[in-house]
Amino acid sequence: MNPTQSVFLVGLPGSGKSTVGRQLARRLGLPFVDSDHVIEQRIGSSIRAFFDREGEAAFRDLEAQVIDEVTAGPLAVIATGGGAVLRPENRVHLHERGRVVYLRSTPEDLFRRLRHDRHRPLLQVADPLARLKDLHAQRHPLYAETAHFAIDTGRPSVATLVNMILMQL
Ligand code: S3P
User: Fold this and answer.
1) N or C: which terminal CB in the chain sees fewer CB atoms within 10 Å?
2) Is the ipTM above a cut-off of 0.90?
3) Which residue from 19, 32, 36, 66 has its CB within 8 A of the most atoms of ligand 1, so it is best to mutate?
4) Hey, what domains does the chain have and what are their CATH numbers?
């Protein structure tokens, strides 16, 4: 395949954006970029530490700047942070500058995958499943609006998910 557009992956934390994105990039012969990783390189610390130090609003400002830059950059497969769709300008940039794939997962599946995760600041709460349900309710419409199509991540292997995406690009 000879891609003419970048591919942006959106979805809740734990939906597989980085894992699927890496394999998809290999299949398309494109570089893989993780926008959270770009942010961490820029701030020189983990996102969790930055959240604790500066708060969520400062993180969202930085995230918007990085999303603007990477979506306007060279062709790539780009995994975005789960909250990247919260800012309207990010939604526009993502939708207009490439093909956007929503990796759709249920809160229960995400909970199973993330139970032991200590890196995601928004899930460091007493009841992470309830938090994931809230995030899903709030963000599902934003992911759906931003994406050109959605893929259900429930059962298929990563390789199958990649094939499903390749068929719809
Ligand atoms: C966030 C998701 C994280 C990261 C930050 C905020 C969110 O990315 O950007 O912790 O608001 O859902 P992942 O989706 O890769 O976990």
Assistant:
1) N
2) yes
3) 36
4) 6-168 (3.40.50.300)
